[in-house]
Amino acid sequence: MKLFYSICICVFGVWSPLFGQGAISINTTGAPPHESAILDVSSTDKGMLIPRLNAFPANAAEGLLVYREDLKCFYFNDGQEWKIMEGVYREGNGIDIDNNNNISIEIPGQTAGDMMCFDGNDWIRIPMGQDGDVMVIKDGIPQWESAVVPPIMVGDNFGGGIVFYVDGSGIHGLIAAPMDHIDAVPWAPTSTHTLVGANNDGIGAGAINTAAIVSEYGPGTYAAKVCDDLTTGGMTDWYLPSRTELLLLYNERNSVGGFSSLFYWSSTESDAADAECIFFGSGEIFSDNKTGAARVRAIRAF
Which residue segment(s) compose the domain that 22 sits in? Predict the structure, then answer.
């Protein structure tokens, strides 16, 4: 007790610790401790700090009170577990959590359909959206946006490149890379003639052909591999267009831009020795030896 008394005098300075029947009173008025209190602290301009922790202490006694700095809450131990003190809530967030961990929220301006989201520091209100809206996440915060997709048009910058074909749905089509990504290269990296199963044609066939060609030849610098390896506009699913896709691309060459009046490879093979290409000076379709050199423009579907 002597040690405790000296600490009181040292810490509280002009404050007067008073003792009576084992109880302690700390104040500036000289009032004795209340008969119901073992420790009676009073002040008109100061508060009392209890231990501020970032983790709960082990082997806590029942009734132990702490303030969690990381959680911004007062907690007490009921002998079994730690509980948030009733009516004490995270500062500035409008949340009230009782002893049973029931949560009530009172945020000014709330209307029916609003939601709450915790942004890491505070709870924020997400206003109700309109009928048909979809929820998206931006900067880690959910918000409602209109589900109406603006029409996609040929020539639009979209999906990592430039749109050159839109199907009847208005939401699917084909995109060309914005430029040729390599000078003229062969269709096949070897002079050994063989069918590789890349005789498919039509919209979407280029992806099938490209996979078959790369599977056959593996690593190297050749038309299908250049497209398959391409990463641009944040997209990686590029492929060498089929004959039909390449012809569609030729027809919209001015909308896309960046072409030369030279031969461009398609992924459609004619036979074991030849594959089809288009001369972008006239739009004529040719069948050329797979070891010949032509330019490459990658495309992707959306």
Answer: 2-41
